[in-house]
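Hi there, hope your week has been kind to you so far. For a while now I've been wondering how a particular protein folds. I'm sending you its amino acid sequence along with the backbone structure tokens. Could you read through the record and tell me how the tokens relate to the sequence? Take your time with it, there's no hurry, and the full record follows here.
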Amino acid sequence: MNGSIFKRRLPSGTITWVYKFDAGRDQNGKRLYSFKSGFETKGSASEAMRKAIIEFEKTHGKINKHRGILGTVTWGYEFGDGKKAGFADRTAAEAELAKEIERRAAAEQVPAEVDPAFAEYIGYWLDKHASRTLAPKTLERYREFAAYLVRHLGKTPLNELTTAQIQRMVHDLEDHGGMVTEAHPNGRPLAPKTVRHLATMLYTSLAEADRLGILKIQHPMRNKRVKLPKLPKREPAVVDKEKLKLLFDRARTTRLYPFIVLASATGCRRGELLALQWPDLIMTTGELNVSKSLEQTKAGLRVKSTKSEKPRHFVVPDSVLPVLADHHAEQDEDKRLFGADYQDHNLIFCQPNGAYYSPDRLGARVKELMGKVGLNGVSLHSLRHTNATELLRNGVPLAEVSRRLGHADQNITLAIYSHAVPADSRAAAKIWDDALGDVIEVGKKAGTVRMVAHGCTEGPKTRALIGNKRG
């Protein structure tokens, strides 16, 4: 398998090493690559790539090139303990390997394979398939979703699921699928967004059963046959200037102050802020490199790539830099006080002993501060919404706001913050007038008669016309 090692210079001047290797092609024939950065030495990047390739080949196989004695080139593949050679070109070998991978997947043992109950199948799908592609946090959420589905569909044989049964489940979840409370003895209603997430997971798992040949019937959710609740159109919660000032004043004497200030000024996600290290920020220029995120799962904390899996660089407002400089000085004092017990991860935001913050706990602490200044119905994430809304309202181009937020597509930004894009009707009319209004004046032709009322004052033809009109 082809692979390469190269170095990259970060805006801070730090050198980091990156590996990249060929990961085959997607369904449309587009070449795919797997890469990872952040290695301190070329050797560590090389070793990591070697291990990554071994793991990749366990599940994706390996394409080989063979050169015969007479110089004839043929291609083959290896997958698990099997191999096959003699293909005329790489494309043919890759196509046959893809078929073999699919045959192996279909042959994997499924509980009660002839017709498993839904509960057995969904557990198998989560363990054997979803776990290979989903991030740990997403997989945890899917397991929670599965519990909802099993309560309604668990005993039904997979091949007896019907569109009507799934539709009833959707309605039941929407009406009383949540926790039992005093106000809702049969269960509180689930939010439309949650119901749609549950349905999406169900659709995906059934599509996989169809692909593997386990589902013998037509996909019961095909062609949008199941109607899902509509999502209410709501503008994201934002914090106005006066309330934001109150929040800053309340937080100023706490360790959360620099964190809240940077969250407001950049719109970065909670996990991205908690994974920031001092080399990611150039204090002299304000340039910030956001390339990773801290995620909290039941297994603990882990640093992963950003949501879009792409790093982004932008400039922090000048007013924020003195706050971060003071914070850095206080952090140096923490290091001195803790001495050898200090956990130095070089983080911008960390506990007094240098350890990572818990994203969930820190989010709860910020929300508690917000409540103390009368900010209800908002959360830490609202500071991200506030940042985007203010930038758009003040004329920052959509493309730049989208880039700073780390959205994969500008349409995502527009869908969330369309309310903030300036849309002044009078201003729009004036702009058109300034640009093209003179065309109307030029287009007027003196003496041209267009109105009946004007023609009614002259000539015999006009009198005849009036007579016809009167009948």
